[in-house]
């Protein structure tokens, strides 16, 4: 008994240390944009959270028409499709700690994102205990891998709903594994209140219940439990996302209209700038590419794929592993086949991938292969912290602009991207003549004439990210003139010269070397080899992620380019 107690204490200390590691990696560089609010979704949620007010009574809370917590009661937020649980808890804590203002709410939201995502460390440990002996070191493997996986680290730095959703889905699965179905119903209701897409997990819940009861032919018990759990989830969902309803059961027509509008934005026939990047991408293949190379990383992805192929049948030896694997495959196939399979939509499968990998890893016969996978996974995970180790590229670029571009100069920025320079200390962008270019507009001779007229009269072209130039040239049939404009600009055929490039990549800053060594491909039309050695602000060795999905880089580590007119 004493040995058992000591072992429990030892395991508790280890998992607590992994949790501390996860928290540390996610808190590192939390104010990554120096208070500039450079993530558009986060910026919107911050504005909503700042404007809504806490209700004075429970009756006011549930009254859609008068509740000060209801975003629809504010003219600026007639389009709102986010879950409200993360917004409500962020608002409440901001008020509680006297941080209820635009500058601090975003940090409260990011901190909560860190906490919720880090809770997965404990959840994965509890899940792994169902497979491994408590004396096995593999019981900690899913937790330590999740702590150091890139996409969860990145998304924890944002005030958004994805980390909340992912944690509640994993909690739902674990409660089912431990036969705590009522608790599972509660956490699933909370998942729905974070994001309505939690419904995708419902088939897994149904399959779990079916497998759990059909073996013993307890059909009545299955029906009774299913009804009670469904009602409990509905009550929790209604409690924390009340404004999606108009009454008890009727869905708010405004929410339905918002969802339809959101879906239409992903239709190729509808013009919506952020969707341009998807037009050149292959469904299923591109999201898999993002998971493999960037979200999970090559070492772990390669290990997972190889182990899955070799040990495919063994996955179905255990119900929990099989269901976790089915969830991974289901979400990849479904979400990956949609028109906008952005990386954050796949976050809910990451803990499950690591759980399945933890199980499959016990079949690795060569220890050296296992060690190599883990070591290189750690290297990639820690390399990502580089982007939070120094100023945001737009902040550095803004400082450079104020120091090197004369006031009253004419500078251009691109529509739908954050304009530079940002306000820094006592410097403001109004000291320059600013012109907005509109490359996203439909390609016509008139548009191109205007574009060239604007740049002819400008002194500098400023691109605050790769959002436009990395997506438009990939659809030359839609943008023949604009694609040529970018190609000519980057190749020097237009009377402009590139004078500044500031980027931030996963890697390691090494002050004892003089140059930056970049590995990996980059975007069209910005052509270069797989390996480049150049002068830069932060010398070191870096892995270029230019070919990843747009949202992976343009928020927290964009590439800023500045061109000067040679006139």
UniProtKB/TrEMBL annotation:
Presence of keyword Membrane: yes
Keyword terms, alphabetized: Membrane, Transmembrane, Transmembrane helix
Residues that span the membrane, as ranges: 12-30, 105-127, 139-161, 181-214, 221-240, 291-311, 318-336, 342-360, 367-388
Leader peptide range in chain numbering: none
Highest taxon listed in the record's lineage: Bacteria
Protein name: Uncharacterized protein
């Amino acid at each position: 008994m004493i040995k058992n107690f000591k072992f429990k204490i030892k395991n508790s200390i280890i998992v607590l240390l992994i949790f501390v590691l996860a928290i540390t990696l996610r808190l590192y560089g939390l104010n990554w944009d120096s208070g500039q609010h450079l993530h558009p979704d986060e910026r919107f949620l911050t504005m909503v959270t700042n404007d809504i007010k806490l209700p004075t009574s429970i009756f006011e809370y549930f009254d859609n028409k008068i509740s000060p917590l209801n975003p629809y009661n504010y003219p600026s937020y007639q389009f709102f499709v986010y879950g409200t649980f993360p917004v409500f808890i962020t608002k409440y804590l901001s008020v509680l700690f006297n941080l209820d203002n635009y500058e601090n709410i975003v940090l409260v939201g990011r901190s909560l994102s860190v906490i919720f995502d880090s809770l997965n460390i404990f959840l994965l440990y509890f899940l792994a205990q169902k497979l491994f002996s408590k004396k096995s070191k593999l019981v900690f493997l899913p937790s330590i891998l999740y702590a150091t996986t890139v996409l969860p680290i990145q998304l924890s730095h944002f005030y958004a709903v994805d980390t909340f959703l992912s944690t509640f889905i994993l909690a739902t699965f674990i409660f089912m594994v431990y036969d705590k179905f009522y608790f599972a119903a509660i956490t699933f209701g909370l998942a729905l209140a974070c994001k309505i897409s939690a419904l995708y997990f419902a088939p897994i819940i149904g399959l779990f219940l079916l497998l759990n009861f059909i073996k013993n032919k307890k059909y009545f018990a299955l029906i009774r439990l299913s009804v009670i759990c469904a009602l409990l989830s509905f009550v929790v969902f209604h409690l924390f996302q009340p404004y999606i309803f108009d009454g008890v059961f009727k869905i708010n027509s405004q929410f339905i209209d918002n969802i339809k509008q959101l879906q239409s934005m992903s239709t190729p026939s509808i013009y919506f700038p952020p969707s341009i990047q998807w037009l050149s991408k292959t469904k299923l293949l591109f999201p898999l590419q993002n998971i493999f190379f960037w979200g999970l990383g090559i070492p772990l992805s390669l290990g997972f794929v190889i182990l899955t192929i070799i040990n495919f049948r063994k996955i179905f030896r255990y119900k929990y592993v099989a269901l976790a694997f089915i969830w991974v495959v289901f979400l990849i196939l479904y979400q990956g086949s949609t028109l906008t399979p952005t990386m954050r939509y796949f976050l809910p499968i990451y803990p499950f991938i690591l759980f399945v990998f933890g199980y499959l890893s016990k079949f690795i016969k060569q220890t050296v292969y296992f060690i190599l996978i883990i070591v290189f996974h750690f290297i990639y995970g820690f390399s990502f912290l580089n982007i939070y180790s120094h100023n945001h590229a737009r902040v550095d670029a803004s400082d450079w602009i104020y120091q090197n571009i004369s006031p009253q100069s004419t500078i251009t920025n691109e529509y739908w991207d954050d304009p530079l320079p940002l306000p820094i200390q006592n410097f403001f962008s109004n000291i320059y003549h600013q012109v907005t270019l509109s490359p996203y507009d439909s390609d016509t001779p008139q548009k191109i004439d205007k574009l060239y007229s604007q740049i002819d009269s400008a002194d500098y072209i400023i691109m605050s990210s790769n959002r436009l130039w990395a997506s438009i040239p990939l659809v030359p049939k839609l943008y023949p003139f604009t694609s040529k404009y970018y190609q000519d600009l980057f190749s020097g055929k237009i009377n402009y010269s590139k004078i500044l490039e500031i980027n931030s990549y996963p890697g390691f800053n090494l002050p004892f070397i003089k140059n930056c060594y970049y590995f990996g491909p980059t975007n069209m039309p910005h052509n270069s080899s797989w390996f480049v050695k150049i002068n830069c602000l932060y010398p070191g060795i870096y892995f270029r992620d230019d070919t990843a999905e747009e949202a992976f880089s343009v928020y927290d580590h964009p590439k800023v380019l500045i061109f000067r007119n040679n006139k």
